[in-house]
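Supplementary Methods, section 5.1.

A reviewer requested that the exact input to the structure prediction be made available. We therefore reproduce it here, unchanged from the version used in the analyses.
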Amino acid sequence: MSKLIKIALIVVIVAGLGSLVLTAKLAGTKKAQKEEIAKLTGDLETTTKKLNDTKSTLDQTAATLAQTQGERDRANADLQATRVTLGQRDQELAALKTQMADAEKLVAEAKQKVSTAEQEAAAVRKALKEAGVEDVGNLGQLAAKLEAQANENKLLATKLEQLTTENAQLKEQLALASRAPDAVVPQNLRGQVTLVDPQWNFVVLDLGERDQVKPGAEFALYRANKMIGKVRIITVNTNTSIGQPLPEFERSVPRAGDLAVH
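The structure derived from this sequence is encoded token-by-token as follows.
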């Protein structure tokens, strides 16, 4: 009986030791699992933050692209309107040139008539002198003719003066229309190219009405202190202006960031 009791005690002790070992192993496993869970949780938070940052960057990039496309569309619309205006201006110039040519022709004709009338009057005066003015009837006819000629001369002189005035006005209008409207743009005015559209052959500068830029003004373009070309302004907005490159000065294709100097 005492042997059985000893055996039972030994079994109980062994079982207790096994339970302690198992409990220790389970405790170590739980700790490792907690550490792994904590690490995975941290990785998840980091990844989530990166995803949110990436989404924010993508949203900002999309907004910037949309704004750039809007500026491009507005620039294209301004360019089309400017081309229409330039076409109308060319038509007006052609009409003014035609009117001026017609006026000059009328002036020449009027001068010729005045010269002819003066020659006729001189011939009449010579005939009167040679005739001695003996025939009263002939004298009356000649006087009437001279009076009529004098009246015609007055009309021709008035017409000549009117045509001369109109001709001067047409020349002034033609000069104003032909002159490039590059008025009073500050010298050494500097800006930058913000947009280049090779398809429509225009550039956008960050200079506008607030900088006293005028249509027709020319800006030299520089890159790395070297001149690469020139542009002529065709449309001016409040803060920007649109220019077309001048082929005779092009040494390199303009691009955003180039320096523009008037």
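The beta strands are 190-197, 202-205, 218-223, 226-236, 241-245, 259-261. These observations are discussed further in the main text.
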